Amino acid sequence: MDYTFKSSTKRITLGLIGVGVLALVYAVLTHIPGQRIWANMLVNSYFFVGIGLMGTLWMAIQYASEAGWSTGFKRVPEAVSQYLLVGGPILLITLIAGSHSLGWHHIYHWMDPEIMNPESSHYDSIIAGKSAYLNEPFFFGRAFIYILIWVAFTIYFRKASLKEELDGGVAIHKKNYGYAAAFLVFYGITSSTSSWDWIMSIDTHWFSTLFGWYNFSTMFVTGITMFALITIDLKRKGYMEHINEEHIQDLGKFMFGASVFWGYLWFSQFMLIWYANIPEEVTYFQDRWKNYSFVWGALPILNLALPMLILMDKAAKRNFSIMTLAGVIIVFGHWLDVFQMVMPGAVKADWGIGVLEIGLFLGFLGLFLFVVHNALAKAPLVAKNHPYLDEAKHHHV
Asked: Of 1, 105, 215, 310, which has the fewest CB atoms closer than 10 Å, so is most exposed?
């Protein structure tokens, strides 16, 4: 059965987008500082682009590893990846808004040319020492290249998938091996460098060699969780009859394992910096303990303890309601993780989780779901000519 983007679902997603717009209007009318508004734009645009990018990464991994079990819900990560075509430009605009020439926000304070000027009272020798990498032309050039190539691979995989649907055979599938390998290499580099550029450079004095992996773990577990939530929703609505409890259980295993992986990196990054007790490194956490203690303390509970406890049992990973509960916790918990990565360096203690934060998150969620549902409706939910479809239909663990 092909998926139909029903008017009721469309109204809900458009309503959520409207909530986001109203939240921005509210923020302007109530004179919430522009810096806080733009910081929230960065949080949500980065978060949802990361989820969209996981759709492309998932497809590349499945092609490169010649996996068959995931073919049954292949259209879901394909549809998720399509958000990059919309979210990528939004993220790029958010970044460009902070340029020195526009100056709509000052999230990246290293963009102030006076910081690099030895004759200025604002001169910072540490930041100036990073000027070969942290300069606007190189920064925006990298951002444009990252997003452009991510989008190009996303478009290619989608078109190849739809062409395979029409032509059949294995020629397109075999060709995808090479493209998948190329994307994995490019992503392996840019997943770290983009997080350094867009997130770590907010706290310019501080750096962590685990930061790229830490960001990857956040996006990886959230992306897989989105695949699971969307697949379960489609299954509940009578679509995807070929998806069974085995598929959902395997997605639950990924959610469980990726949550543990995130917990390992969260602890490792914190423990090494705390133990070394180097002043320019510990200030990163001291700021979060002082002004964001509730948010920072909630992360290991939402992103590690609860997913482990909820998903540890085999039966739980086969129960749609329990999987949905765990999924909602994971998505919110990792949005909160991105929130605490951005806000302390961007707005210091001038933060909150109110109408702006909740409304903007719902707005981006609505836009994400609108794009995903629209993409699902434009292709058969079952990739009938995929060479591994039969294996997926008979998948057992």
From this structure: 1
